[in-house]
Amino acid sequence: MKLVTAVIKPFRLDDVRDSLAQIGIKGMTVTEVKGFGRQKGHTELYRGAEYAVDFLPKIKLEIAITADLVDQAIEAISDAAKTGKIGDGKIFVYEIEQVMRIRTGETGTDAI
Question: Which of 45-83 are b and which e, b meaning 16 or more Cβ less than 10 Å from the residue's Cβ?
């Protein structure tokens, strides 16, 4: 089992969700986060005053899937989230040692 974590631009969320649904991924956790990478933030104008925005709004997706779906999930996320501009995001893949569905007590792939 794997945990795929992706950090994407907020306006790409619906496209990524639809793309993942097409390959059979039914659930994910979505968190609104802030951060920066190579962009290093930007400046904005508000009521005539310029101010720095150091942390940019992003969306963090966490998807627990079986190992055989990882490559398809990465491709689906990448294709749907890509704008070709700086700040498109990153995808991380982690190994999951154990998972348990609290309601039923199921473990392993049955719990996903």
Answer: eeeeeeeeeeebebbebebbbeeebbebbeebbbebbee
| Contact (CB, 8 A) for 86 and 25 | no
Asked if pLDDT for residue 77 goes beyond 80, the answer is yes
Q: What is the architecture of the domain spanning 2-111?
A: 2-Layer Sandwich (3.30)
- Give the span between the Cα atoms of 54 and 28, in whole angstroms: 28
Give the bridge partners for 35, in sequence order. Answer: 56
- Does residue 89 contact residue 6 with C-beta atoms inside 8 Å? yes
Report the predicted TM-score, pTM, of the whole model to 2 decimal places.
0.85
Rounded Cα–Cα distance for residues 53 and 112 (Å): 38
- The domain ranges of the chain are 2-111
Tell me how far apart the alpha carbons of residues 19 and 23 are, in angstroms, rounded to a whole number: 7
